[in-house]
Amino acid sequence: MSLEELAGSPAYEIFNEVSRRKAAGEDVVSLAIGEPSFATPPEIIEAAYQSMKSGATHYVGSYGIPELRNAISQKTTEKNHIRANPGDTVFITTKLAVYACLMASGVAGGDVLIPDPGYYYSEPVIMNGGKPVRYPLGENFAVDAEAIKKVATEKTKAIIINTPSNPTGHVSARSELEEVFEFCKEKGIRILSDESYEDLVYEGEHHSIGSMEDSPSLVYSLFSLSKSYAMTGWRAGYVVANEKKVSLINTFIENTVTCFPPFIQAASAYAIKNGRRFTEQFRDELKARRKLTEEALDRIDSITYTRSQGAFYSFPSYQSPLSSTELSQRLLRRNNLAIIPGVLFGPSGERHLRISFGAPRESIEEGMKRLKAGLTQA
Question: pLDDT digits over 65-81, tens only?
Answer without folding.
Answer: 999 999 999 999 999 99
